[in-house]
Design brief:
By secondary structure, the protein is α+β, with helices and mostly antiparallel strands. The chain contains three helices and nine strands; from the N terminus they run H-E-H-E-E-H-E-E-E-E-E-E. Strands 1, 2, 4, 7 and 9 form a five-stranded antiparallel β-sheet that branches. A four-stranded antiparallel β-sheet has the order 3-8-5-6, with no helix packed on it.
């Protein structure tokens, strides 16, 4: 019997020590199945050395990577936001889907401002919970950035909604903010 794989799964018999006589054809059938599996897993039949030589193990949309870190360094300085928020303490949409794809994504943001003591907060779009502005010990978490001196930077972590959007706000309506996606994980 030749293997059915990859068109269908093989159904091999179970054998019992001391009662089942195993013939060469039985072992050959199992070997054919293993060879078919190896041919399917390896693209070029050689020892895999790169992702291109292995079967695709990604089970999500191939139009966007499932994770990326150091995005700005690899893609140049192209912030997702650069400017003033306009109205202090009012949440506004921040769309990162052009980088991450439209999915719930954990994003790592690099945040800079040109004002002393400017603070911004991030949350999932549609989340009505108030993001604390306290210290980490006061539940401020990693989604709050306070810029203590002009042109300092900070980092924030937040989760997008299924469309790849966050909400963010600032305590300073006149601060010029620059927000970059440094990395993300789907």
């Amino acid at each position: 019997m030749a293997t059915n794989f990859p068109g269908a799964l093989d159904d091999f018999a179970n054998y019992v020590d001391g009662t089942t006589i195993i013939e060469a054809a039985t072992l050959n059938d199992m070997q054919f199945a293993i060879e078919a599996l190896q041919a399917k897993v390896l693209v070029n039949g050689d020892v895999p050395n790169t992702d291109d030589e292995c079967a695709n193990k990604k089970y999500v949309d191939d139009n966007h990577p499932t994770s990326f870190f150091n995005y700005s360094a690899a893609h140049g300085s192209n912030p997702i936001f650069s400017g003033v928020i306009g109205t202090a303490n009012v949440y506004q949409d921040l769309n990162v889907a052009a980088i991450t794809g439209a999915a719930n994504v954990l994003v790592y943001l690099k945040v800079a401002a040109n004002e002393n003591n400017a603070q911004c907060k991030f949350r999932t779009k549609g989340d009505a919970n108030v993001v604390s502005t306290g210290l980490l010990s006061d539940a401020g978490g990693a989604s709050v950035v306070t810029i203590k001196a002009n042109n300092y930077i900070g980092y924030a972590v937040a989760i997008t909604d299924s469309d790849g959007k966050l909400e963010w706000t600032s305590t300073d309506a006149s601060a010029t903010w620059t927000i970059d996606v440094i990395g993300f994980v789907i």
